Model the fold of this input.
Amino acid sequence: MLKRAQSGLQKQRGEAGFSLIELLIVVAIILVIAAIAIPNFLRARMAANEAAAVENCRTITSAQVIYYTTYGVGFAPGLLTLSGPGGAPPTVTAADLIDPILATGTKAGYTFTYVPSTPDVNGYFQDYALNADPVASNVTGVRHFFTNEPAVIRWNLTVVASSIDPPLQ
Done:
């Protein structure tokens, strides 16, 4: 009787668990799925970053129009001017029109470069150029964006975008 119980235990132990081959097959399947999924995930993240960059360009452009019409001193001299301390009343030097993260010039994998035009005789800026470029090209985004006072967003695949590039459709 004791021998029979011991042989039953050994049989159960021998059948429990996975063999090395089975584990290797499972790992190989997981690696194949990851090899398919990771590039798609990276492309989706780049597309999301590009969409966010376009929206941030629109936000800055809208903030510029509000700044221009509200304060009557032309366009803002910098992105930080369009931001504000939060909670305090907006002023000409802290308009509180864009979020503080965007005002730093980097958000959602893109760097935003704002350059006001040469000031007029009153010291007011009547035009500006805004570029949005991927922080790491082909990693955080592919396209470069440009906009200025007419608020047309333009793009370029290879170099920093400018006013001669095609508009977004």
